Amino acid sequence: MRRNRIGLLIVVTVVMVFASWQIALAFSINAFTSRVSPSDEHGPTEPSLAVDRSTGTVYAAWQGPTRMARSDDGGRTWTQLVPNTLGRDWGDVHVRVGGKTHCACETSTCIPNRHRVYLSVLERTPLTLQVRVAWSDDRGANWSSNYAAAVNP
Questions:
Q1: Which pTM does this prediction carry?
Q2: Could you tell me what percent of the chain has a pLDDT over 70?
Q3: Quick one: CA dihedral 51, 113, 72, 135, positive or negative?
Q4: How far is CA 133 from CA 50, 147, 149, in A?
Q5: Phi/psi at 7 (5° precision)
Q6: pLDDT band at 133; cut points 50, 70, 90
Q7: What percent of the residues of the chain are helix, what percent strand, and what percent coil, each to the nearest 5?
Q8: In what order do the strands lie in the sheet with 89-100?
Q9: 140: alpha, beta or left? (left if phi > 0; alpha if psi -120 to 50)
Q10: Which residue, 60, 18, 19, 57, is CA-closest to 36?
């Protein structure tokens, strides 16, 4: 009799764990279904994602032309970012989150204790296969750029 109860308890536990896992999976899939790129943009390619682990902010970048977006709520809503220091991209768009910003007090281009966001892209102009790197210290509102981080002649 006791064996039957233990067996039943194990079966019920397995079923509950499986059901909880299915519910969690369904929630996580539904939580990240909002469109990231603007609705008037067709054919964005080569997406790149990065997460600021200190705040949970998600950054997405893609080419066609190079665009970015930021989500502060786990991907439910997105704020479009315009890295205006970049030209016409050609491919290999990457976004990453680095170390803390260098400013001690908030300015128009820097927020203290936030993490710098980096964006790299291959471009065609002014030189063929030029790598450009842009960065932002204010979560993507303003950008600085290295106009020729690397060039392949």
A1: 0.68
A2: 63
A3: negative
A4: 15, 7, 6
A5: -60, -45
A6: confident
A7: 20, 40, 40
A8: 89-100, 115-123, 130-136, 144-151
A9: left
A10: 60
